[in-house]
Amino acid sequence: MSLVYNDDERMLAEAARGFLQQNASPAVLRGLRDTRDADGFSRELWREMAALGWAGMLVPEEFGGLGFAHTGAGILCEQAGRRLAASPLFATAILGATLIREAGSQAQKQALLPAIAAGRRLCALAVDESARHDPSGIALLAHADGDAFRLSGEKILVLDGHVADTLVVAARSRGAPGETHGISLFLVEAGSAGVAIERTVMVDSRNAAIVRFCDARGELLGALHQGWNALERTLDIGRICLAAEMLGVAGEALARTVDYLRQRKQFGRAIGEFQALQHRAAQLFCELELARSAVLRALRAIDEPDTALAPFASLAKVKAGDTAMLAVNEAVQLHGGIGMTDEFEIGFFMKRAGALRQIFGDSYYHTDRYAALNGY
Amino acid sequence: MSNLDEFRSETRAWLEQNCPASMRGAAASGTESCWGGRKWVFASEEQRLWLERMAARGWTAPQWPRAHGGGGLDKAEAKILGEELARLQARAPLESFGISMLGPALLRYGSEEQKQRFLPPIVRGEIRWCQGYSEPNAGSDLAGLQTRAEDRGDHFLVNGQKVWTSYADQADWIFCLVRTDVEAPKHAGISFLLFDMETPGVSTRPIRLISGNSPFCETFFDNVRVPKENLVGELNKGWDIAKYLLTHEREMISGLFGVGAPGQAAPAGIAVQRIGLRDGRLADAGLRHDLARHSIDAEAFRLTLGRVQDEAKAGVGTGAASSLLKYYGTELNKKRQELLMAIHGADGLGWEGERFAEGFVPRSWLRSKGNSIEGGTSEIQLNIIARRILGLPG
To answer: Which residues of B touch A278 (CB under 8 A)?
Structure first.
């Protein structure tokens, strides 16, 4: 099992890099932010991504998707990270598609996946309720009401919450917070009665919302009380893709920093001649190489049928998360005063890394989980 | 059956016949390595036999040309031999700087006469070599070395001192960097010389480390006469040979001391044994966090080791990957030793006696501090990464 890209993967990376180089950038993100764009992303860009097949990359071919190996999804996420590209790729093409594929009935998959693959239906996964990630602590209640369910409670950090057509909600149908048994999954139409969506402006100018449910109608996705396995697997796939995006953010931050070190002159020479700065850049390079290995391994692990995914997901999220934070911290510091200005672009990378670090468990969460999974 | 399959089955059969029981499997793991050389006293008849048999096939140096005593194997065959040896957990028949360092340099830079003369005794383990590079005033700045070799017509006259010469007091011959031109810029006045450690004027003194005894020595040269034909490559072009060897040494050290090294028990396992669990979790939350964080880095490092090897095979990847591996592997190992000291607590302070395993824990901790210094300091490795990979100026 090689951690070197094969020819198909290399071609996909080049194509993705080229496309996103043209169509996404920190400048585009700045525009979405400053105009307070209602969608928070370009619908036109999403249409083009869908035309390339990206919306359906994880949707099986029988439902109109491309059925990529997950390494492909990681490749797209990394390239999106380099350009700080805002799009529904993560929430819809990765989280939504995965959870519906993992837990849905044939009828549900048929109803939703083709539209997702075509870029016509957007999803948002509603899982977090507390500020620090704690998925087994889910408390939002779901109680049976005839052949459907009624959901009541509040979800936070719902990525793409305010643009989603379909909310996929993890709720508690039995038991107490802290128990993984008793968590169920539901499909909730965004416009339905009892659903109040409040868009939140976040540090990284990306889409997130608070969603309040008040006896909102939900359609059961998967077996009652038994949603945890599909949820955790989806979260792990999400974590690994976030780690891939962090590789892109970190890699671009390092590249811009090295360029700056070579160009910026003080004391009659390029500051890149100073050994202290050379060492910091070199150390960051080493961390990035290790993070890359961890992320690549984790992406491959998703498609290995007998491999426990959780340890790889935590490995990737910790290593990529810490590395991305180091990269953006070094980037701002080594750019000096200009790095602190909003006008300069490097700050956007720090903001995105700060958010990515937090989503679906930070390094504290995943280091602890890694230890627990390894028996200590 | 393909040629390679035939080779494998023949190799397997030969090893089964010829690898003595005490040189394989668990029995072998406790035994000492064989370094050979004129002074060597074999630990057992089996150790001697194993060396003799493997050397006769040239399998102490499997990929060297047959003409010079080597096994003449190609990469694929050498890989198979390695796998078959590993299958038996056979210990290496010979540890040798001659094989790992000098041999490749001679094959690349030596004259035919030198190859004929020096390589076969290396293969047979008859001559043991040491490396004369660093000096008290030439460590990181190795090219600043001052050991002088004056041209005296039919010989060189060598005066000076080397330091950190591993096993100099056990070795038969030395490969030595000397200054043959004091006027030229420092890199352009260095030559690569071979000579017998028994030559009058050569003496050694062992160096004790903060961790206790070590194989390192100081080596002194007092009017040592070295025949002209012992010059390897061109006069004053020895720096090229030195550089070639240093990369090999770097890779060797990553393998030995880096976290990829075989036989390293995970500190977390030791912690669970010594400290215990509470409600299924290690009963020290802070230490648990540090152990897990280190374990994550160690696994990412192991994956990177594999990836670098895969990239090299595929002909892609950064140059100077050996600097990354050496730097990161040694720093990780130091961190590991710090964690082991924490885990052992007061038991990690004992220096002597059976109760403290003769100070194995603190001695390992102290010895690990040298890993980031020897074979090119971490700071030098970072310089190399910064300049060669990131293209920073200087």
So the answer is: 382-383, 386-387, 390, 392, 394
Q: How far apart (Å, rounded) are the C-alpha atoms in residues B122 and A297?
A: 41
Contact A341, A347 (CB under 8 A): yes
Residue B374 and residue B319 in contact, taking contact as beta carbons nearer than 8 Å: no
Residues of chain A with Cβ-Cβ distance to B317 below 8 Å are: 4
CA gap A312, B114 in Å, rounded:
52
What distances in angstroms separate CA B380 from CA A162, A270, A327, B385, one per listed residue? 52, 20, 22, 9
**Residue-wise pLDDT tens digits, A250-287:** 999 999 999 999 999 999 999 999 999 999 999 999 99
Measured distance between the N- and C-terminal CA atoms of chain B, rounded to whole angstroms: 56
CA dihedral A321, A325, A328, A333 (to 10 degrees): -160
Residue range A147-193, pLDDT digits in tens: 899 999 999 999 999 999 999 999 999 999 999 999 999 999 999 99
Within 8 A of B383 by CB-CB distance, chain A residues are: 275, 278-279, 282
**Which of B291, B295, B299, B378 would best serve as a mutation to test chain A binding (most A beta carbons within 10 A)?**
B299
pTM for the model: 0.93
**CB-neighbour burial class of residue A178 (10 A; exposed 0-12, middle 13-18, buried 19+):** exposed
CA B78/CA B234 separation, integer angstroms? 32
The contacts of residue A82 (CB under 8 Å, 6+ apart) are A17, A20, A248, A249, A251, A252
Rounded Cα–Cα distance for residues B391 and B394 (Å): 9
Would you say B379 and B227 are in contact if contact means Cβ atoms under 8 Å apart? Answer: no
Nearest Cβ partner for B390 among A3, A285, A372: A285
Catalytic annotation present for B6 = no
